[in-house]
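Researcher: First entry.
Model:
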Amino acid sequence: MLSHVRSMGLQGIDGYEVSVECFITNGLPAFDVVGLPDAAVKEARERVRAAIKNCGFKFPVSRITLNLAPAGTKKSGTLYDLPILLGILAASGAVRLPKTQCAFLGELSLQGELRPVSGVLPMALAARELGITELYVPQTNAAEATLADGLTVYGVQSVRELVSHLTGETPLAPAVPWQPEQTELPLPDFRDVKGQENVKRALEIAAAGGHNILLIGPPGSGKSMLAKRLPSILPEMSRAEALEVTKIYSVMGMLKSGEPLVRTRPFRSPHHTVSAVSLAGGGSNPKPGEISLAHRGVLFLDEFPEFHRDTLEVLRQPIEDGSVTISRVQGTVTYPCRFMLVCAMNPCKCGWYGDPSGRCTCSQASVDQYLGRISGPMLDRIDIIVEVPAVHFEELSRRGTAEPSSEIKKRVEAARSIQRERFGADSARCNAQMEPADLRTSCVLDEACTNLMKTAFERLGMTARSYDRVLRVARTIADLDGAAEIGPQHIAEAVQYRTFQFGSRA
């Protein structure tokens, strides 16, 4: 009496096949689960036992051995409840499994109802690649599973319903593929921001090229307000990008009810007390961190110097690579984290250093110490640094509204369209991700631009990395102008975004 049920598992944010093998033999009653199960999987024995009895089936009074293959991979979570139950019923002859290529997953209540599980989308995508044609999931997860095109999905509410389907008494209807509503989700708009035209320009450049940006200004100047409106001018995500982001949120169990697909670019704003593990990801059972939750979107770090220095340093490698690798005893997982880094900070502890009002009470040593909390290598990875001045009464009292996000977004999308032509129509790359080979072909400088870059390089003490980043920003500014070649005016504007002096200005 041996049965075999196909299921799925999660490794990082990718799915893989798990075979649930059930063997029932004579002997003293026992129920053993092998194959590196964690505590949640071991507890499935009691949930399955209660669900079988409460659904009117007889639980075998025999020796039951369940193997979750591959046995060398750690199994975690409650999603194996349903395939374990079906394995027992099939091995005992209570049900007959379909001959089609199908897989099952879901958590059980004691009454035999199916409860939702996390990570259904990556498992559904993996099932499709493995040749599975039918996937049985909890009813709540059905819409999410249908995002894996080419897969027949059945949403199941209870064990009784599933058994009736398998026996042919009451067949289930396949889940209808989920379709998003056409209405756009409202986002904070730049029309609400009065003044700060230079900062809006910098944010437009950052959005057009996917550049990292640092906002420096006194309290109340609108840094956070401006940063929170950045997503409203970013281009819409492609379906491939949306699926990438949704996989991460699915694994974390953070999908909104009735909205299985993440359609807007993420905006993550962790508190400055966040730990390095929470930011980068990890843990004993590794999970994605804030930088992965910000994938294809924005990671906003307010009060930048207040973050622990060791925490900030973990960002250096992910910013360069667009991914983060977590290594633990159980294995190694890699999470994507291609995000725009947006930071905001005061110029000193009191926040008023350099303000014409003279309100600053900090000594020069205190200012240097405050600004010195951010390491040079970290600053080197920021493309644009812009000062955000205090807003004057005249600007606040001015009637009318500022330029809306919709108009800025049109210019950003036009620049991104140029970049798609540059890197390929199917590429999700932008200017901030240009490789050295791309710089040689797309950032060719004439003599005037070369002389200007040489002067800036020497006077500002640029590194090779900051030199490349200036070229990338200049290329974006040229794209916004619709210029085929980078001109001196583009270089000059790009250079000015790196002229802020950290440390003593005496």
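Researcher: Second entry.
Model:
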Amino acid sequence: MAINQLKAGAFLSYISIGLNNIVGLLYTPYMLRMLGQNEYGLYSLVASVVAYLTVLDLGFANAIVRYTAKFRAEGKSKEQYEMFGMFLILYSCIGIVAFFLGLGIYFNVDRLFEVSMTAEDLGKIRTMMLLMCFNLAFTFPMSIWGAVITAYENFVFQKLVNIVRIVLNPLVMVLLLNMGYKAIAMVVVTTLFNVATLSINAWYCFYRIKIKVCLRQFHWGFLREISIYSLWIFLDSIVSHFYSSVGQIVLGIYRGASSVAIYALAIQLKSLFTSFSTALNSVLLPKVTVLAAKEGSHKDISDLFVRVSRLQYFVMSFILVGFIIFGKEFIIIWGGEDYVQTYYVSLIILIPFSFDLISNVGVVILQAENKLKYRSIPLIVGSLIGLVLTFPFTHYFGVYGCAWAISISILISNVLASNIVFYKIAGIDVIQYWKEVMRMSWFPVLMIVAFMLVKGNLPIHSILSLLCYILIFSLFYIPLNVMLNMNGWEKMMIYSLMLKVKNK
């Protein structure tokens, strides 16, 4: 049964990811046009503020999954139920703290955003902030049930609920947008779906899995053990929220809702870009983890790092080059003329970020060797540097300044510092890695120059014409890059992956 759950869950996970991307691509342009730039900016701003409050999770969700699975394997039902009770109390307290912190922001909205927002905008921000605070207060204590379902390996139920939510949420929003409702309605719908999902998870835990909760025992020693385990997850969460949320908040303070909207759309495109890297990782990295965990030489680890990074480079450079060439037209057709600045903001962020993504196998190697904390520290330092830079850069240079601040932070922490950690801690030959990157880069650069020269004479006014030109570009780029840049091992790897997909 567990194997079936695992296979079906994996299949539904791919469907969920695919649906999420497809729905996002189809729903987002409609939402942008119906909301308008200002309303979308207000919604993104409030969502970013509240996102920071979610770090109060402190990384405990992973710990619930890990220790529930551990206690189940050991047959310790009593310890499970006591842990559930402990986290229910703990998360309820965190929910109350988050609510009051949100209220503190609610009562200071005028002070934070009065420079860049109108009185009407400030009123909408307060309303959405209050709704999201209630949502957060409910979410924290109820979130443990989703972790329990994961630990019990009931993947099918969990993924099906998520798929239903992915489909229904935009459908309801389309109806409301057609009726004239705006950003506040989006928050209401999001809150209702969140409450419904969490309540269904709770029902499933108590009535299908039949778990129990013991509130009489609170083991402080056990909490300390879990806190040590969760610390680095918590720190990584802070860094992740910095890159996804801080820009919107600072832009909201200095520049207003329109700038927030432009930047928020760029961050959405960055998330889409990252999902391609994650998809490749899911195929390649399990094998990498096994190999890296073995007692191998530094040379073996370095060779592994270079090989997988090269494959990542092939995929990510193809997507990035395609965006450089056609991204401006795509954003105009997809989001509208008002969002043309998003193209340039995206480039400022995506180009340095791509160097982080292609070397992600280094993170897996550190994880396999239990040395991940050595990378977390420079990431925290880099995000603090980025935070310091964001305020003056945004104040003087607006949305481009904000993007440059984030870009500099990525280069310092995710590229430079991370490479030093890979070299010093994991023994990876990063010099050889960069030689390989430089050796492969001539082809993407050549394609950019060639297609940008040709594109000036091409009329791209519709999604159909855009797709045709992207297809032509792909037919040139992929075969030529394989022939000119790929070595024998990489060609065999691609061939074996294609066979696996075909057999599935």
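Model: Note on the second entry: The two ends are 20 Å apart (CA to CA).
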